[in-house]
Here is the input.
Amino acid sequence: MQPSFTRRRAGAALSATAAAALLAIAGTAGASSHREAPFITTSPKVDGTDFYMFRSYEPGRDGYVTLIANYLPLQDAYGGPNYFAMDPNALYEIHIDNNGDAQEDLSFQFRFSHTLAKSGSGQTVDVGGMTLSSPLILGGPVSQVRDPNLALAEQFTLTLVRGDRRTGSASAVTHAASGSATFDKPVDNIGTKSIPDYAAYAGKHVHTVNIPGCALPAKVFVGQRQDAFAVNLGTIFDLVNAQVGVITNRANIGALPNTIGDKNVTTLALEVHKDCLKSAGDDVIGGWTTASLRQARLLNPSPASGHQASEKPGGAWVQVSRLGMPLVNEVVIGLKDKDKFNASLPKADGQFAAYVTNPTLPALLSAVLNIPGSAPTNFPRTDLVTTFLTGIPGVNQPKNVVGSEMLRLNTAIAPVPFAQQNRLGIVGSIRDGGNDFAGFPNGRRPKDDIVDISLVAVMGGLCIANGNNNAFGFGAACNPAAVPLGATSLELHDAVDQAVVPLLPGFPYLNTPIPGAQ
Here is the structure.
């Protein structure tokens, strides 16, 4: 399928005003969704960091859609002795809306369990005639699923709920070969002595599964991965401590370091055939990921022996993390409403509409940095409404859309091989005259440089791309004359190159995690 808008080229040298605005916005953007709201900083195990949704570009898998939800940010590879197991008292979900009504039609629910070896003792050591529990989570090199040297087995179940996530019809996803409804998760990459070939070991945990109501087998993988998001985190949070000349020249893309390039995350990845996700009447699907905790938690002041025996949760599920489009809670939602957004549902996003139609960030930056006149003035910002809340007409807008924040993907647009992918997705194709319409904001691939694309969007670059031909369907309200930076807004970048982050050529696409020791 070819999108219905025309492509235009644009480019010019940045002015000093544009450079200042770029610096400020890049500094505010931060990581895609790492520690983005007050409450979630206290519960990193349920902190959703990035959500990806794209047509699989692995050869022979182009009929499938890959869904990737990352959690537990900024993992240091050496973070032992307990490392980064998922929370068995949490509910992790990936939701799909396939009719545009801002409500989930499919929810993939992940629940985790932890089991200690040797009937709850873990690995043991004989010392002076006594057999005692080892303090470590493994007792020797690991290479196999359920390796006998593992002291802690981490497993998960996967349930598909059709309809409302709490009251809909629930069915277990099962292993295609064994029929089991329980799946194994690999232990984190402790180091090369503990796990000599982690790539091979983790690969044994890619499970082929049967999804109820879907005639075609799917894949699932849950485990630690190298964080695929690229950002110069420390420098930009230090009031953008970077040289203007570096980040205003397209030749310097990649000049600044990716400061989270040595961090890991935990990935929940699914590969499902597109026909099992979309509805019969529309090729566009919307997706987002959430995590929920029980409403109550009792802490035991005298925990019994066992793994994670210090608390007992109860009550209804309470959503504490939400992520669809990247960077929304970081640079769109106001500080006082960040926890509220994380607890909200897409169908209620009207309460946050003013943050999109009248974004505070450009005006705030203009005042703080004393660069008056640099922010777009096309209020209400219909360009941002289309990008974040409805999808782009002729590209990824559902036939009957209710405005709501989620990642939207047109499953009829064919994937583009990795080498031919434009790091700026649709915006890059418009600017460069290319043919890559399978990237952000039409879904999101690991290669898509969403920081740079978001810089273009917030400073009005989509209005410039929209132009006189109304390419994005924004209408007359998206007046290029209201964008002070003009065509230069299409050139903004943060000097960190997302496109060079190491990735795998196929599912689960995100790279083997950094080892704790070489």
